[in-house]
Design a protein that fits this description.
This protein has one domain (20-100). 78% of the residues lie in helices and 0% in strands. It is mostly helical.
Length: 112
Amino acid sequence: MTGNYSTREYREKLYDDLHVRLRDTVILMCAIFIASIGLNMNSTAVIIGAMLISPLMTPIVGLGFGLAIFDTRLIKQSLEVLFTQVLVSLLVSALYFWISPLSYESSELIAR
């Protein structure tokens, strides 16, 4: 979010953006799939690339902003979205590594 927003405008923008949407969930699933491939290939660059396309930033910003202005509703909504996205991430990565023919643990996988 760029521009000169007041606290109220920024809060309202975050409230509008803090929802679990199918579009964000699909992007997150793709990012986790790419990150899992990066872990499997022992490629730090692929893992970082997957982190860049992941839509996890909005709930993290919402949580930080909610804590900064003591807005419990914003904190609660941010945590709900973040926990949902983390759950989706864990399920997708577990599914990938269950299906993947991984026969050994790479140094990247052990480090993560």
